[in-house]
Amino acid sequence: MRLVALFASAAIFAGFAAAQSPVVKPVRGRPLVARMQPMRSGGGGTPTDPSSLIPTGWTCAGNCGTDGLDGVVPLSPIGSSKYEWVSTASGVNGVGILPSGALGSEIDGSTLSTSVFSATAGTSLNFYFNYVTSDGAGYADYAWAELFNSANTPVALLFTARTVAAGSIVPGSGMPAPLATLTPASVPIIGGGPAWGPLGTSTGTCYNAGCGYTGWVNSNYVIPAAGSYYLKVGVVNWLDNEYDSGLALDGVTIGGVPINPTSVPALSTWAVVLLGGALLLLGMMAAMRRTASHKIG
Q1: pLDDT at 285
Q2: Beta carbons of 60 and 114 less than 8 angstroms apart
Q3: Using one digit for the tens of pLDDT, what is the confidence trace for 150-173?
Q4: Domain 27-258 has CATH 1.10.10
């Protein structure tokens, strides 16, 4: 009888312990893990300093970089040789969540912010984006872009994209409506396991229906009031951190002027510098010849 009572007590205790423990959803073959140390890459998976991969003055939280023609992501319609990107691969816990309203169950991700720029009322903010995801079924990863003022207050949601098994993924299902004009206005996924370097180990993989990419989509927003602003984009894993997603970004302009500050002189400036150097060298050579001629005479 004592042995029976002992087993009964053990069963009751185990049941109580299970009831007090949080229930963790199985994560497609791996336990849910917190990825605290991001690996930033240039699209090929090589760890490096993100400041050397994004425009001067821009800031990254998580995993960001610059890439060129790569897998399913071609160059953007503006014709530049590279574009910026953010990815949930090697993202950071709690980063990439929609600023104007978390949906719940976000895990980890990344954000990329431009430098602060000034705009007058009626100025157009324009850019292109391409959402890429290896996730599908009920694991609805998402990406977004939002305009902030210089006081770090959200001003306008400019686009959303979210994984769905079928139908349009832009704007994002169950997310707030963007205020920008999107072209095209709705976008179904181009299906299949997307091969794209910024997805890290998820490149070329596909978890069920819904994985793929959008192709380049244009976002245009007319800023209603003068002020100082910056653009922030983000991408986040939802429910778990397997099968990563990312966002390509290009052609960010304000009033037609690129938001891409750089310390490298423009070609015309280089031309002036080189011309000045050449004139100085010619002057020095002429002076040396005069000196030599005077000594001989």
Answers
A1: 62
A2: no
A3: 999 999 999 999 999 988 999 999
A4: no
